[in-house]
Amino acid sequence: MSDVLRVGVAGLGTVGASVVRLLTKHGEKIALKSGQTAEIKAVSARNRARDRGVDLSGYAWYEDPVEMAEKADIDVFVELIGGDNGPAESSVRAALSRGLHVVTANKALLAKHGVSLAELAEANGVSLNYEAAVAGGIPIVKTLRESLASNEITRVYGILNGTCNYILTRMEAEGLSFEECLADAQRLGYAEADPSFDIEGDDTAHKLAILTSLAFGTKISDESIYIEGITSITTADIQAADELGYRIKLLGVAQRTDTGIEQRVHPTMVPKASAIARIDGVLNAVAVDGDFVGEIVLVGPGAGGDATASSVVADIVDIARADKTAVLGMPAAHLEDYTRARMRLHEGGYYMRLSVHDRPGAFAEIAKCMADEGISLESIVQRRATRAVNAPGSGGDSAPQPVILITYETTEVAVKKALEVITEKGVVSHPPQMIRIEKLK
Amino acid sequence: MSDVLRVGVAGLGTVGASVVRLLTKHGEKIALKSGQTAEIKAVSARNRARDRGVDLSGYAWYEDPVEMAEKADIDVFVELIGGDNGPAESSVRAALSRGLHVVTANKALLAKHGVSLAELAEANGVSLNYEAAVAGGIPIVKTLRESLASNEITRVYGILNGTCNYILTRMEAEGLSFEECLADAQRLGYAEADPSFDIEGDDTAHKLAILTSLAFGTKISDESIYIEGITSITTADIQAADELGYRIKLLGVAQRTDTGIEQRVHPTMVPKASAIARIDGVLNAVAVDGDFVGEIVLVGPGAGGDATASSVVADIVDIARADKTAVLGMPAAHLEDYTRARMRLHEGGYYMRLSVHDRPGAFAEIAKCMADEGISLESIVQRRATRAVNAPGSGGDSAPQPVILITYETTEVAVKKALEVITEKGVVSHPPQMIRIEKLK
Fold first, then answer.
1. Fewer CB within 10 Å: C terminus or N terminus of chain B?
2. Does A313 touch chain B (CB under 8 A)?
């Protein structure tokens, strides 16, 4: 093994610049710990003129990352371009095919092409590391690939998107609307100009797809994920959750069931006393339930240039130490096919918020619909809606009243059916809100 | 590399039996993931007749672990005997000297002999893994040795003893005395018959000594740790903390300062909103502050046969994968000497609880002592002590009154001096209680 591990970095955004700074600042420490000096030899980005706050003059410059992957004198190709196809995919494939180790922070790429990239890495006898692709600075990939390798995992779940958690935290803390908090997140750089990828749950789903494969030894299947974002969450939901002893978090959950593996991303009511309820702001958290270890929870920054760079460089250090883990925890040929669980059988408690027409018998109709589906109710909160004193029509008319229902454990199919019937019967003025309640420690 | 990694387990208590069960139950999974089948070939314990709930008939039996280390046909020697000398130490040294990999859960052994054992492992080109020695099932050793290898660590701290955390949690939740909670912990098997090693802070100190070395790249120095246990904590302290927005936890803290590295174990008041305040019962938690990663927190079971076995087997899996990390994160020869920080310069807020004689001018004297040492007070809580209505002498005499003081940031030397003067002047009826306040996120 050479004394120097030659690194090429493709993509020089915030994370790329932090990787350059980290390798420069702590190069000696890394050499001492890993036995090899990791030195950047080449970089790739489109705009050479842009000031990135780091000195890039000593590195070979490639405008085309594929060209860098194919030609640069490097041992490790670091992909920080992003996107599940285009130059990210083609440069990673070129690097692996050439026998370079690859480090990437690209969750979309892994979620879509993880298995075929793992096969390519194996065929070429190189590492494909991606600690930064899931939960930023949190070492969850290593924990699942290595530390918990001997456990039978029953569930992995977490807060995997800092943008959503920031919005939900502020909505709760300050009683602000979703739109106000999103605007603040955008102003502070926690959300993109087009935030849909985060707030609709797709980013969480990509990360969950990777965690599922690592936890259960199945092929990555990001198309089998039930996804619901946080855009429908209102301050009324947040307040009701608070009063009932819950907080609302966007969770990604993967769980082994009798019928297969369930993967779902949706706003979830979690008990205030649970570890996950207490993760605030842009932090991420991942919990893993294993048959021997019990439950462990890892908490930390899920994004940010420096935290993400910490994970990228950890992957480089593993390569410098000649530590080769199977890309997806075991040889790709041994991964089981992913069998999707019948989500309709998912059991748990449910929260429902209905805007009920204020007319005689409305509540009896709701109660009957629930009973017809065998749903038992744990709590019912009906509260006269606040009205502006001088608002027109505020004198005893039939303005809709909010009704909150919490069910005991029941099935999703029963809840959806009941809500459908309630809506069809015209008992409610707006589409009902439904949020799943997760049993957590 | 052979297809089979032959394992010998010395010590067949709760953890040893769990290791046997785990390797038996998940042997195939481990083989798939690591490329080698880890098979137990030999075991060692004194009492062969005892029923341990696992079938040991297929393994060679050694009464003497040293003999097993020297003679058994094994590749990995697993030490689960315990103790910082005697058969644990001699068998580990024999195994390393013979060129066997060693896995141990023995924090006392590592704290006392870690550096010389690391040197011995290096000289023989074998691994010495000890994930289970710190915080049970939590993968903190791997996280520090590998995932955070490229970070400059500024602080590592945590709840490292489940017995103490269980006692403090119950004292707070139920208003019970230390003695009552300790008795319960003993009845439930969370505390030993002789609990002093846990409740006096020594167990936490051993684990902290290991974390310090990994975090700061210094030689292990468990004799330089300031240690204070939880035996002096009363329900009055717990209640006062609660009212002031804090919880009391036994923390191990290692921190880089201008004068060296500070290692301390003591009851600590932590803000209720901090992640560490919310770790209840027998759980452990470890937080690490790194210059790039920021703060990450790992939470999980700190003890228990199965959780500990999970970490022991994770170490075996690393050996099966031929992953060799430097025992203490870097070659032992490169570890810096440990320089103890001047603890007297430690700065932070302090909580003091005084039993003040109820006489004119007492409070003025206290205030003057604090002012003389330059201590600013953030809160002062003086509350007339509750007295039994018919208690003798309850009618306006001079029974001591509890006074709670919270200081702004000051130095330990100032606080100790002030308390000394207050005591000398006879203002207080009992030795003052002093608890450090830790600034945490």
1. N
2. yes
Give the other-Cβ count within 10 Å of A424's Cβ.
10
Separation between Cα atoms, residue A68 and residue A59, nearest integer Å: 12
Of B18, B22, B325, the CB nearest to A321: B325
Residues of B tagged active-site: 207
pLDDT in tens, A331-377: 999 999 999 887 655 668 999 999 998 888 888 899 999 999 999 99
Listed residue (A419, A420, A411) closest to A259, CA to CA:
A411
pLDDT digits (tens, 9 = 90+) for A389-427: 444 444 444 678 889 999 999 988 899 999 999 999 999
Restricting to A residues 258-297, those with a Cβ less than 8 Å away from any Cβ of B are 275, 278, 290-297
- Write out pLDDT tens, residues A253-267: 999 988 899 999 999
Q: Which residues contact A430 (CB under 8 A, 6 or more apart)?
A: A355, A400
What pLDDT shows up at residue A386?
A: 54
| Residue with token string 């049970």 | B136
Token pair belonging to A71: 């030609």
Phi, psi of A222 (to 5 degrees): -85, -5
Q: Does B306 touch chain A (CB under 8 A)?
A: yes
Structure tokens at A292: 């021997």
How high is the mean pLDDT of chain A? 92
- Positions of chain A with pLDDT lower than 70, given as ranges: 1-2, 343-347, 384-398, 441
Active-site residue set of A: 207
pLDDT for B381: 84
- What is the C-alpha to C-alpha distance for residues B82 and B11, in angstroms, rounded to an integer? 8
Q: Which residues contact B126 (CB under 8 A, 6 or more apart)?
A: B96, B99, B100, B101, B102
Which among A143, A80, A69 is positioned nearest to A109, based on CA atoms?
A: A80
How far is C-alpha A395 from the chain's CA centre?
47
Please check whether residue B32 touches A, CB under 8 A.
yes
**CB contact (8 A) between residue B297 and residue A299:** yes
Q: How many CB pairs under 8 A join A and B?
A: 186
Interface contact flag, A30 B275, Cβ < 8 Å? no
Distances (CA, A) of B321 to A156, A384, B89: 24, 64, 26
Q: For residue A362, what pLDDT is reported?
A: 86
List A353's β-bridge partners, or say none: A404, A433
Low-confidence ranges of chain B (pLDDT < 70): 1-2, 343-347, 384-398, 441
Q: Provide the strand spans (E) within A213-282.
A: 226-227, 246-257, 260-271
Which domains, ranges and CATH numbers included, belong to chain B?
4-133 (3.40.50.720), 140-301 (3.30.360.10), 346-437 (3.30.70.260)
B213 touches chain A (CB under 8 A): no
The structure tokens listed for A395 are: 């004198």
ipTM, two decimals: 0.93
